[in-house]
Amino acid sequence: MLIDLTPAFRREYPDGLFGALIVRACPNRARGVALDALKRAVEARLRERFTLESIEADPVARAYAAHFRRHGTRYPVVHQARTILQGRSIESPSALVEAMFTAEVDSLILTSGHDLDALQGPLWVDVARDDEVYTKINGKPQALRAGDMVVRDSAGMIACVVYGPDQRTRLRLESDAALFGAWCPVDVAPAVVDAHLGALARLLRVEWPEATVDPPRCWTAADEETPGGR
């Protein structure tokens, strides 16, 4: 799948990047069947690494917090990780989302999941304008925050950093192929994102041994632009 960064994104986020992992032949289900031990390991690792207070000082958490403060809100992955520190277990009514969430709280890298078959044409990593509205994953319209990091396909917005994925391309129980995106507007090293997507790939292979998992890729603002990029 063609993915590129627009000139507007490169100007707004010169240190930004977008990472992607594509998996096929991974029929979704209501609950993972092979992830329990790996989820417990991630929960234990979080509780060893952090307290409710110290997690704020993590470099990845700080980088995201700065972006979310700019848009008047807080980084949700830190909140989710805190619930695990308080004793909550990792769980989701979707095995694909469960694998994604497990990797996400382990690395604190903001990640979205999309039904690969619902995506239309190339993806463009871009910047939101102040007159834009999209349909959130809950089906409600949402005005975007101007300047936020967004990704579009030929049919429209598929997600933004501040408000998350759209409804059209969301992961469904019927999904059997997915694109996972790692969203990094500022100050997260490509090697950290590669490691995060690699960990997610391993979780997917455990849950779906027959799946085809493409190698993770990262696109950075410093990369050479694709001819014809908009």
CATH architecture designation = 3-Layer(bba) Sandwich
Strand order of the largest sheet: 1-4-7-8-9
Order of helices and strands: EHEHHHHEEEEEEEEHEE
Secondary structure: number of strands: 12
Mean pLDDT, as a whole number?
95
Structural class: alpha+beta
Number of domains in the coordinates?
1
The major β-sheet equals: 5 strands, mixed
Q: What fraction, in percent, of the residue positions are helical?
A: 25-40%
Helical segment tally? 6
CATH class call: Alpha Beta
How would you name the CATH homologous superfamily?
A: Phenylalanyl-trna Synthetase, Chain B, domain 3
Low-confidence stretches: none
Shape assignment = globular
- How large a portion of the residues is in β-strands, by DSSP E? 15-25%
List descriptors:
12 strands; alpha+beta; globular; Phenylalanyl-tRNA Synthetase, Chain B, domain 3; 6 helices; 230 residues; single chain
Structure description:
It is a single chain. A hairpin with a 5-residue loop joins strand 5 (133-135) and strand 6. The mean pLDDT is 95. The protein has 230 residues and is of the alpha+beta class. The chain is 32% helix and 23% strand. It is globular. The protein has one domain (3-220): Phenylalanyl-trna Synthetase, Chain B, domain 3 (Phenylalanyl-tRNA Synthetase, Chain B, domain 3). The protein is built from 6 helices and 12 strands. Helix 2 (36-49) packs parallel to helix 5 and helix 5 runs antiparallel to helix 6 (190-207). The strands form 3 sheets. The chain has a 5-stranded mixed β-sheet with strand order 1-4-7-8-9. Strands 2, 3, 10, 11 and 12 form a 5-stranded antiparallel β-sheet that branches.
